[in-house]
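Morning F.,

Quick status update on the modeling queue. The single chain you submitted on Monday has been processed. Sequence for confirmation:
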Amino acid sequence: MKIFRYNITRESRATEQVSASTVTTVSSIPFASLFSDRSAMSISTVYRCVELISDAVAMLPMEIKDSDNKVIVAHPLTGAFNHPDNLLTRPLLIKMLVQSVLMRGNGFAYVHRNGDGTPSRIQFIPSEGVQIVYDAAKQRLYYTCPTISNKRIEPVNMLHLRKYSQDGINGLSVINAANKSIELAKNTETAASKLYEKGCKVDGIIKGGMNPDQRKDAKEAFLGSIESGIAVLPPQMEYQSISLSAQDAQIIESRQFNSKDIARFFGVSPSMLGDLSGGYYGSIEAEQSAFILHTLNPYLVLMEAEFTSKLLTGKNKGMRIDFDETYLLRADKNATANYYSRLVTNGIITRNEARRELGYGEVDGGDTLQVAFTDIKQNTIGNADNDNNNSK
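Structure tokens below.
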């Protein structure tokens, strides 16, 4: 049955002595969207927002770090994301997970494991193929997926991403939240399409006393005359429009407003969608920083926590997965140069660490931390002054 548009089925298991009223099997697509994914993606703003966010997350380098925050270069988990049996490469897998969260509220990937429990490969699963089963009384959660197994799947073996949720179990998509705005944008596009199909001609009526045959002849004559661009009416007849023109309907303004409204749901600046009318940011760096902080970071934190807790278990406890969001700031060369220069000169990272992140080879002597002298007693000038004073 449907309760508040949730697809819910009741279950009871005698072996577990669970009441049927406490166990619910919830579809991973809880709310029936007014538009399908394909229909929503036909709106340029929706398409660009989904692509922009998913591509940005997918292109970020994923690093595995130990408890000392040191990057582990050759960790076996890297092979799980790039296993030969995987249909998707790591960037495409991440992209599909983020797209699924944006469009359907939930992103799923099954973790295949070796005999010792370490992940062997990661398999993306479309959200419609997964059922979420939750026992509220016991706070017990598991998943079912016929394409993977006919048995229940424990949470540790299912990567489950959801950004917005009302119960903490099932995610709600941005498409559901923005349904009204997307519906309005779709209607605006449809109205504009119909108007342009008619050559921007508006509907109207011709006033005047006529019998049926005269009305038919007048209509045909009028339609034929406006094809040439000039309409001529007989005396005592008047044309009155009964539909709005493109200007009166403010189609252009409506489309611009719809675009900004949908972008607001996704947390994307209109300037990143090609709308430069507002002059939102003064530089690429400021725009990218705002995009990373307010739009991407929530997804990155969710993915880092989910991946770390379910992929780095057993002997890998204490390690963590980290996405390097500074990669997106490298488009601004001046900002990148200043950023790494300050890190190196202040002894935060070595020259070789900076060169590796920038894609350059290592140099001899580049693995030592260096800090510029600020104490006059520690440099040669200070020592020379002291020697002169002692000799007097």
